[in-house]
Amino acid sequence: MENNGEAPLLTSTPGLKNAHFTGDVEDIPPIKGITDFCVQFGVESKKLWYLAGPAIFTSICQYSLGAITQTFAGHVGTLDLAAFSVENSVIAGFSLGIMVGMGSALETLCGQAFGAGQVDMLGTYMQRSWIILFVTALIMLPLYLFATPLLLLIGQKESISYAAGKMALWMIPQLFAYAFNYPIAKFLQAQSKIMVMSYIAAVALVFHTLFSWLFMLKLEWGLWGGALVLNFSWWFMVVAQMIYILSGTCGRAWSGFSWAAFTNLWEFVKLSFASAIMLCTNIVGWAIMVAIGFNAAVSVRVSNELGAAHPRTAKFSVVVVVISAFFVGVLLAILLVIFRHQYPAIFADSLEVQQAVYTLTPLLAACLIINNIQPALSGVAIGAGWQAVIAYINIACYYIFGIPLGLALGFGANFGVMGIWIGMLTGTVVQTLILFWICYRTNWDKEASMAEDRIRQWAGQPEEVVDQPKIY
């Protein structure tokens, strides 16, 4: 029987039972003993990596677009490297955090709706997110238009501020690509349609590398050539994914453009804003692409299972992703330490820059471990719909604790960059411990019931008021 490209509600994939929907027809039984744990760990790991593998690959490809441009900029000149680094990390990095955060509201709604079989609502949710993120991009436009005075205001060197400000003007098209790309990504992820995203990202990366070399180095267009190629690469991914969706491959999840997207916008904005605060306050974690893969995968697993009323499976998904993220983080940290003498030369010709990176390697290794676990736990929060509660925690840990500590160590104690980094990392550690505690104390049966209420609410059906998560 044909399904017009739509992910089947209950299907079997060799070696991965029902991976396209909620994972199991019924919730997993209570785990008794180490043998039961190991068996269920293997089963859940297959489902997690089925989602995380392509998500990690896609994230690496997308992150590499900017990283490759930055690498070529380092071979153009020191000022070019500094200008692009500042624009990419401060201007585009902040915008990316906001857009990813605003778009993550879609993970909760689409994931839980798909888990409950309410596939028809996914397209409407994505269109609402487009509207909100497009308006958000317009609001953030002055950040690009007035990047130079803003950078000067925060104490950046004049030469770097002017060069980065010019680069920011060239990168405005990327801002609006973010606004459309991330809702599309969450829409596809909720349905486990992640391989197509990987293919598109891989194609974009190959051509991006080729044309960046051609325009930036061979033709000597410098940063202007890099900006041109980077904008094109991001819009290529948006257009290619939209062609895939419009071709009918998503079945009932996409039934065309609808005026219903303009309803319930304020409620959607509130959830999106909470999501944005939750994610952009820990932007360091999003620089670690493996962690982004875990974040996306576990948010889909938890939202699908809660939507399908499988609280034990959702809870066990949390256990599996934390253990997996920890061991992957340790492996990456070990590799970083082993190659600490080699990798700095990839990013810059300057020996001074290379030495600075080498000095920070031990701290970076610790960051890799912590910042693999924290985004995974944030993915749990997204899947369960806890964005508002976690947003307050993130603000407290990052802005009230982490940044002041970093400034005190960096400037008060004269530890410089390392002191700032230690403070921010300490804030992330505190944040991670709190997320651990919340996951441990959560009543997952109540979360499944709240997911059912949330699905009714967004489908326009009468239901009880959806509260914040009950933590016991």
UniProtKB/TrEMBL annotation:
Please tell me whether the keyword Disulfide bond is annotated for this protein: no
Q: Give the residue spans that cross the bilayer.
A: 130-155, 167-184, 196-215, 221-245, 283-304, 316-339, 359-377, 389-412, 418-440
List the GO cellular component terms.
membrane
Could you tell me where this protein is found in the cell? Answer: Membrane
Coiled-coil region(s):
none
Q: What is this protein called?
A: Protein DETOXIFICATION
Give the GO molecular function terms. antiporter activity; xenobiotic transmembrane transporter activity
Question: Where does the UniProt entry say this protein principally localizes?
Answer: membrane
UniProt keyword terms in alphabetical order: Membrane, Transmembrane, Transmembrane helix
